[in-house]
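Q&A log
Question type: sequence-to-structure
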Amino acid sequence: MKSLTDLIFDNRFARLGDGFSTQVLPEPIAEPRLVVASSAAMALLDLDPSEAESAVFAEVFSGHKLWSDAEPRAMVYSGHQFGSYNPRLGDGRGLLLGEVLNDAGEHWDLHLKGAGQTPYSRMGDGRAVLRSSIREFLASEHLHALGMPTSRALCVTGSSTPVWREQQESAAMVLRLAPSHVRFGHFEYFYYTQQHELLKQLGEHVLSCHFPACLTQAEPYQAMFREVLERNAQLIAYWQAYGFCHGVMNSDNMSILGITFDYGPYAFLDDFDANFICNHSDDSGRYAFSNQVPIAQWNLAALGQALTPLVSVEVLRELLGLFLPLYQAHYRDLMRQRLGWLTADDGDDTLIQRLLQLMQSGAVDYTRFFRELGASTAPQALARLREDFSDLAGFDAWAADYRTRSARDGDDQDARQARMHAVNPKYILRNYLAQQAIEAAEQGDYAPVRELHAVLSRPFDEQPGQERFAQRPPDWGKHLAISCSS
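Response status: OK
Response body:
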């Protein structure tokens, strides 16, 4: 295992030059202190977990110290925000410190969010606050533990530096990891500014660094768009199957790698509600849970438009037509697993939709339903779950069909329970749990956020003594107002 001083940097994006990013040094925050760190994320850099306990750890990830081989850059991009094109966005409060090459030959971006003002701050202070930094950390590591494609979070560093949002809060920084921080909006920026040579240079960079297999195809950019589309179809299928609502699916928040990216006012569903809006700033419901599939396709179309200098419009349109069937195939597979089915059946889609309609009308807790469905035999579980539904006749009819469908797979209960518990989490990141941990951290007590992170890092395990984290949320916890403010 390595110390912080042993990290090896290979800053490929920085080498693209000033047309793609601007050199900026981080602005330190005062009296830095470690709030929480992820040993699993540290392992991606081959870092010894004990490094988090050193004083230099908080200093490095609060802007006070920097590796000599790091090349901090603020990336420039644009994007469609709530459907309207913003011609110049960029890293307004974050910096790409550099790319670390680990022992496995993998490159990991070190992106410090809350690092201060950049040329792209747009009148902002360039800071992140403690609450949003904790929320991003918890979500990044929890989604990874659930098996979803996501950026990672190495640590949160708190401070005494004051910042103003709706009220005075304290500044913090979160260190994010990803193989790339290139977004759909990067391609849009060079397309709409008619810098087509730089657009092609960006495409070549993404191909060589992240999609090398596409270079062997007759049409590499066409193959790259097809891969991006496939990855995003799978990503959104995970979101929908596990009840994750992103909240701000602007095209600048969509990763070219098809990973969950730029966490803001996200939420997991408590009671199932297809029309749930997790961002209280989203007045029109553009990014409601039920809209995430069409919005993902809309964003892919925006990316496709930016690629028209490299791929024909006809081919791009044809590829876009693949998104919905690809999404449906991935979603169907995930839901079959969650329902304990080993095989595919023509009637599965209907059974799944009937269940969701019943859950909607009865305001059934989405996560607990699937976990309890696999906790005992199907008849026993269904009898216990029945009381959660309001349409009892509808549920009884569905339960009968579910038992018949499940019986066709013919495996024993022990195998069924093990299989279902492996994909149906007992613990999910509910907003009220995050809020409780944040409130403690704002008072200087970091133990709750560290404990919550530890529990959420093993979402499928029983974890005796931690059952309180799996309880139904209190009514107040279902209606927390979360916005883009950070």
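Response note: The two ends are 34 Å apart (CA to CA).
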